Structure of Squalene cyclase C-terminal domain-containing protein:
Amino acid sequence: MNTTATRLKQIAARIKTRYLDEPRLPAPAQRQLLLDRAGLPDLDPGPEAVAAAGIAWLKRSQDQSLHRDGGSARDFSLLKGWASAYPETSGYIVPTLIDYADRTHDSALADRARRMLDWLVSIQFPEGGFQGGKIDADPRVPVTFNTGQILIGLAAGVRRFGDAYLEPMHKAAAWLRDSQDADGCWRKHPTPFAAPGEKAYETHVSWGLFEAARLAPDPGYGEAGLRQVRWALTKQRENGWFASNCLSSPEQPLTHTIGYALRGVIEAYRYSGEADLLTAARKTADALLRAMATDGRIAGQLDCDWNATVDWVCLTGSVQIAACWFLLHAITGNAAYLDAARRANRYVRRTVPISGDPDIVGGVRGAFPVDGDYGRFEYLNWAAKFCVDAQLMELDYPAPA
């Protein structure tokens, strides 16, 4: 028996032992777990192929969502199949669809983005907020974070399709502005689907306000966003790490929420031009440079000294951070950011299937290996969205010689 076959048999035996106390894993989950435990594939399909496959997967997530309502399914699970639509992430998937549609002159894809927006407008609360969780989640209550993500999509809709989305954009932005505490933190409308407490990563909500402010400068949306970012920076340590910055484990935040926090600070700088915001963003971005391995691997959770606390990768966080490095390279010209972004992208691309089962082709797992404790056995719609974004950013740079 050759070495590879022997190794796969050993891995299969360990997997069987590990899951003895769980219901038997379906064959597709077993197969993916076996492949992941064998190691990262060698093949890098390249940014163009992965971006195209990711868009195809996002289209499928809209078509296959449980209620076929126009939103994007939260995930495809190897254990449960397609989920119902997720308003929050459908909101920021909209600008990704618009961007790709405009790059490729794909009017049908733009129509899909518009259908997603129309669905979102139809579920907006009268006061302007949007619900947390999936569309069929209980309780159904307005949530700050989810509203901010949908605001990003509404602003993109106004920019691309016109005034049909202007009133919903204003309602969402005003609701966020008016529900903010005096110190800049949002505390009144937390999600019921995460651990309670203040969230530094709501800088990503502020990004939505900056997008609205670019279209409507007068109502104070941008000022509200900057207040929150400055509050969040009170949670940043000198080494760039943010406290109060995770869904459930603030002492070891996910790279996903680190990516959210960092992107919001970068967007605050891009909106305001205030130099100290760029300095703050670079503290975090530079620390992440040191936390990444040479092959582009970043552990999925990192403690306050930027040490890995888990042995799996949060693929979503990796491509979010890559996007932040691309933006910082564009701002600063620092070649280290460009190199790191490419390496992080390449790592994630090697996990993305580009042939085979259409339910997973172009999809991005919550974690690598697939049984990691984020999006376990799931292909997440926001992971695909952020992956496409990061690949398109890479395509905007000439390929390295």
Residues 27-395 form a domain with the Glycosyltransferase fold (CATH 1.50.10.10). DSSP finds 14 helices and five strands in the chain. The longest strand covers residues 75-77. The beta strands are 75-77, 81-82, 313-314, 367-368, 378-380.
